[in-house]
Design a protein that fits this description.
The structure is a single chain. The chain is of the alpha/beta class and 554 residues long. It is globular.
């Protein structure tokens, strides 16, 4: 009887590798972590995932003494699969870390995606077009499938030089075409995350694990970049507000303008719309492109390591293979005993290790923005590397940091009535007929207003390193009256990072309307999905019928 292959995971501390392990186990296999140099000799196949900065990845490999053993492993002819930054370090270098050489397995350099013509990071579900026919059976990819991309740097696809020897698929993002997978001899690598790409990604991962993907050395004619068609879809995100009810059980709830009790004046129970993992699994099966958990209970009376949300993520990541975001409590935390202090970057790291792909920062983003603008006013450099946004983005990458904004309208009769704020003309006049408003940011779940507007917040947070904006609106929350178009359009114009529209959706037309009016990157809803008033499949079907590209579920 043939001995089972020894599949190993090369983890340099990249963040969420739990999801990859879960994906491998979902396919019926086991995987062992590489802990020592000697493990390279034991491996039959290695999967090398990566997120964050190119330089951090290379330095981590060098610090562990893994560079030479990894190159020797590749030279031995045994199969290697790189994922995201795990693919990028196989090239000669990256503009992200100009002084840090790559492994040089593939010819070329990783370059910054141009943010002057589109949002960056490239975040969402896109196609991977196979660029040439091979005599060797390749990875199970291509066709109409969509894969989850999240990156700010990429290798340009030129179809020149030696690219015909290793480029397997290419992907168009706006006016650029990038290498989305490489395959040369025994090395296969993807820019997208197969473990977060649903059934399509699992198929690609399975073909590496269960087949001998060794590409022959024959050269093939490959497609010209101009022939690679645009295929990026708009994301539909399901959001779950999670808190403990009065009996101490974790439940999914939904507020009416942030009030989560059935009858707040009479002290009614917390609305219970289901169990977090059960609902999230349902949304994954129904076709949600991402799932966001917003923790609205502080859990201050227990050590952070025992926080129930960590277990929610661990359970969810075992059965959900699309991106997971966790929000609430991403800040410096001191355990109740006063002995253990968790810096925000360590809090985020624990969430990533438990299965999250992104963390959402709310109140602390407001405080960071206030400090940013105060430093600007004081004439000192506005960034100093101390905020949670900066530290998490530096270690885990810009794409890992979402800022969650909870604003409300403040009406004024003219812009001169609020000279220190960004005032816009509103399509929803105020109670006294006011034709203008500014959007005031709040903290502490909307309970405390601050003297900072949304434009000031999002531009500061983008400068600090945030990679995405989750844009709520307290005036729209729970109303089912549609998204706050004025706010979404103004915010989309203010930043180059992706924006998610949230709050107010009540019917399928609201989703297509906000995309058509603002070109927002993603749409999010909660209560209407929980109560099945508007199924996710209906939203996607409606959007597709109106010419808005969406991902279909295999």
């Amino acid at each position: 009887m043939e001995a089972p292959q020894k599949l190993y995971l090369l983890d340099y501390g990249a963040g969420n590798v739990r999801s990859l392990v879960n994906a491998v186990e979902k396919l019926g296999h086991t995987i062992t972590h590489i802990d020592t140099v000697e493990d390279f000799a034991r491996a039959d196949k290695i999967i090398f995932p990566g997120v964050g900065a190119f330089g951090y990845a290379m330095q981590a490999l060098r610090n562990k003494g893994f560079v030479e053993p990894l190159l020797a492993y590749i030279a031995s002819g045994r199969p290697l699969m790189g994922i995201c930054v795990g693919m990028q370090v196989l090239f000669e270098g990256s503009d992200e870390s100009p002084d840090e050489p790559g492994l040089g397995v593939f010819e070329g350099r990783v370059e910054r995606i141009d943010s002057s013509t589109k949002t960056v990071p490239h975040m969402g579900w896109n196609a991977a077009h196979v660029v040439g026919a091979h005599t060797t059976q390749g990875p199970d990819m291509g066709g109409d499938r969509r894969y989850y991309f999240v990156h700010s740097y990429a290798v340009p696809y030129t179809a020149c030089g030696r690219q015909q020897e290793f480029v397997h698929t290419a992907t168009r993002y706006g006016d650029e075409v990038v290498v989305s997978s490489a395959w040369q001899k025994n090395v296969f690598a993807t820019q997208f995350h197969p473990e977060k790409s649903g059934a399509a990604g699992l198929s690609a991962l399975q073909s590496f694990i269960e087949r001998d993907l060794v590409r022959s050395s024959d050269l093939v004619e490959i497609s010209a970049p101009a022939t690679i068609e645009a295929a990026l879809t708009k994301r539909v995100i399901a959001c779950l507000d999670v808190r403990a009810n009065d009996q101490g059980d974790l439940v999914v709830t939904k507020g009416d303008q942030y009030d989560v009790r059935e009858n707040s004046e009479a002290g009614g129970d917390v609305r219970n719309l289901g169990k977090p993992v059960d609902l999230a699994k349902r949304y994954f099966e129904e076709g949600a492109d991402e799932i966001t958990f917003l923790n609205i209970t502080s859990f201050r009376n227990m050590p952070f390591a025992d926080t129930p949300m960590l277990d929610v993520l661990r359970q969810a990541s075992r059965c959900i293979f699309v991106p997971l975001t966790i929000g609430g409590g991403v800040r410096d935390i001191t355990d109740p005993d006063g002995q253990h202090v968790w810096p925000a970057v360590e809090v985020a790291g624990e969430y990533f290790r438990s299965g999250a792909d992104k963390v959402s920062i709310g109140s602390d983003a407001v405080y960071a923005a206030e400090t940013y603008w105060q430093r600007v006013a004081d004439g000192v450099p506005p960034t100093d590397g101390t905020t949670a946004i900066e530290q998490i983005a530096s270690r885990y990458g810009q794409q890992a940091v979402v800022i969650s904004v909870d604003p409300r309208r403040v009406y004024v009769r003219s812009p001169s009535d609020a000279p220190s704020h960004h005032v816009i003309a509103t399509s929803t006049p105020g109670p006294q007929g006011e034709a203008f408003c500014w959007y005031q940011c709040t903290v502490k779940g909307g309970r405390e207003p601050r003297d900072i507007d949304v434009r000031q917040l999002v531009t500061a947070c983008e400068a600090l390193g945030a990679g995405e904006v989750l844009l709520n609106c307290m005036d729209r929350d729970g109303t089912n009256s549609g998204y706050e178009t004025d706010l979404v359009a103004d915010t989309k114009a203010a930043v180059t990072i992706p924006v998610i529209a949230s709050s107010g959706a009540g019917r399928v037309e609201h989703f297509s309307d906000i995309v058509d009016r603002t070109d927002v990157d993603a749409v999010l809803a909660a209560g209407i999905f929980h109560r099945r008033e508007v199924p996710i499949a209906d939203v996607k079907r409606h959007m597709a019928e109106h010419g808005i590209p969406t991902r279909t579920v295999e």
